[in-house]
Amino acid sequence: MEEKKYLKWYNKVGYGSGDIAGNVVYAFLSSFVMIYLTNTVGLSAGIVGTLIAVSKLFDGVTDVFFGSMIDKTKSKMGKARPWMLYGYIGCAVTLVAIYAIPANLGQFAQYAWFFIAYTLLNAVFYTANNIAYSALTALVTKNSKERVEMGSYRFIFAFSTALLIQSVTIKFVSVLGGGAAAWRTVAIIYAVIGLIVNTISVFSVKELPEEELNESGDGADEKYSLVEAAKLLFSNKYYIMICVTYILQQVYTAMLNMGIYYMTYVLLNENLYPVFSWAINIPLIIALIITPMLVAKWKGIYKLNVVGYTLGTIGRALVVVAAYLGSVPLMLVFTGIAAFGMGPWQGDMNAVIANCSEYTYLTKHKRVDGTMYSCTSLGVKLGGGLGIAITGWLLEFSGFNGTVATQPASCIRMLYFMYLWLPMIISLIMTLIMSRMNVEKANDDIRNRKLPLK
Predict the structure, then answer these.
(1) pLDDT tens figures, 182-214
(2) Is residue 37 a contact partner of residue 51, using CB atoms and an 8 Å limit?
(3) All domains in the chain, ordered by first residue
(4) Between 20 and 30 A from 321 (CA), which of 117, 138, 240, 343?
């Protein structure tokens, strides 16, 4: 029997546009914050990396907290939409603050300014906004096909926005005169765009009534404490797999975002960075467009993700070969192949998380959709932050100096490792995890047996 449809095309597009807002924060931050801090403000890459790592200590607690709060929220707007709407206001303010570090402050005060603004953005405001946004996938429709389509629309907007930001930001800053004032102006413009689009996305969908979400009538009990919520999450092996995969994926992305250093100091042409961004994001967008069709053709998500990431890993290995051959065109081709292979996971990831939430519902009889989607925010913040922190540490260890035009040989060797070898290794690990993440089959087995999983 065909599943009931809940959404029109404009609901899916409106929902997906919310990742424009998310990525004017995330792509701008992950791609450019380190080079802004080292080359414009003059801060140490190693100290910045350490501050980001310390900031991550707050993230795990706030992810579960906000996920639990979303699950317990009752309002005319629903559970998630209020958090998505109001959380973004704080995102906009703190994003501007990060790129508005006063030049007349002492260096210690500059580090403190960055740490406070970065921690508030990631541990509080982005957490509330992003978990709520991701949870909407499970709260506005029960149709598995629509959930995949929502994920595809979402990440088409996400990667298109990332591509645009990575392509124009350096030039944008230069046109505005360069320096700290230009970075601040760009941040303000991006924040205003994000506020407008996030608001449109919030009001483009409507959450289903709780009685419809729980219409199976098995008496699911939603009353649980924060500690119980954490236990529910970490007793679900698929949640742990998704968390680890998401964190690794964000570290992977952070390494590629640091390509601005590789292009500047290895390839000696910073203008190649937007070109490589196109080579990554265009194949990703194409893959996202065809993901719903592939899921339908392959009758599921699991096999598609495993095959896709296998192709992605092979692609990244060939990027390494092309780099040592000194062929930028081949590097671009293999970068595109790797990105295309990794695309389906981006599109169907929210559907996998919804299945993961269903696994907890079938085994523990608890509806924890908002809390379950904490893995998206947790992954973005821990993985992205850890990736930037690792970059800072490795740059500092290699002897990088942002105030000079030519870097030492030790730094050049490190850039090869960071931009070429680390992404390939991380991709291989993610492929192995994907091969174990068959939550669809696990749910089907439980339903067929109609018995709790032991």
Answers:
(1) 999 999 999 999 999 999 999 999 988 877 776
(2) no
(3) 13-449 (1.20.1250.20)
(4) 343
